[in-house]
Amino acid sequence: MALPSYRKFLGAYTSASERYAEAFYGIIMVTGCTGMVSLGVPKEEAGVQFMLWTALMVNILWGLIDGFTVVYGSMVDEVASDVAVNNVRSGKDVKTATEEVLDALDASLVGKLSEQDKAKVVEVIRSSKSYAPYKNKVRWPEVKRILAIFSIDFVTVFPVSIPFIFATDITVAVRLSFIIATVLMAILGYQWAKYARMKRWKIAILFSSFTVFLLILSFALGGI
Fold it and tell me: Which of 129, 128, 98 is nearest to 115 (CA)?
């Protein structure tokens, strides 16, 4: 019951591309940071508990930072788009404003239209009587969006931290963590390729190669 509710929650406040991106960033961040710690801290000092807290704190902080930056970055974009729309509607600097409006719509289906049809869309925006100026507020939906993004990072990346909970040997824990991260990246790449209409196993191997590279680099530089 909880899992369908959680999926519904994510679907309401994040897009598919955001979910895959957050999972990708989170895994790379935690794997990269634990790899760097294993390089900078002597093996006898880099205990399993120390690495566990490193992985968890990077996971938590990255999720919160990303949640806030995505939400508040989108607020800035909304204001910029609103200014452009108001300029189009008021006749102020119409050429620049029109370009900015189309720029904001470029990622949507409008970006695939011909120039003539784009001009019609701009005209609909200009003449619409139902347009309400955008007002920025920190509302409950924005808070939920931050929490949704944070949860994606935490839930996806937590398995990478599991070896540091159960393993007693730091070398074994680090290697198992890298293996889990590599498997997660392969699964992530496979699922992403399914939505992107690309060759699934090829993308799965490509995604997993990121963590394999981090492992090889860490080992080559004298890490655990």
Answer: 98
Helix (H, G, I), strand (E, B) or coil at 176: helix
In 3D, which of 218, 178, 210 has the Cα closest to residue 36? 218
Q: At what angle do helices 16-40 and 48-90 cross, to 10 degrees?
A: 140
Query: Are 122 and 88 in contact, with CB atoms under 8 Å apart?
Result: yes
Question: What does the pLDDT look like over 144-180, one tens digit per residue?
Answer: 999 999 999 888 888 988 888 888 887 788 888 889 9
Burial 42-72, CB ≥16 within 10 A → b, else e: eeeebebeebbebbbebbeebbbebbeebbe
3-state DSSP assignment of residue 156: helix
pLDDT per position as a tens digit, 169-211: 877 888 888 899 999 999 999 999 988 889 999 999 999 998 8
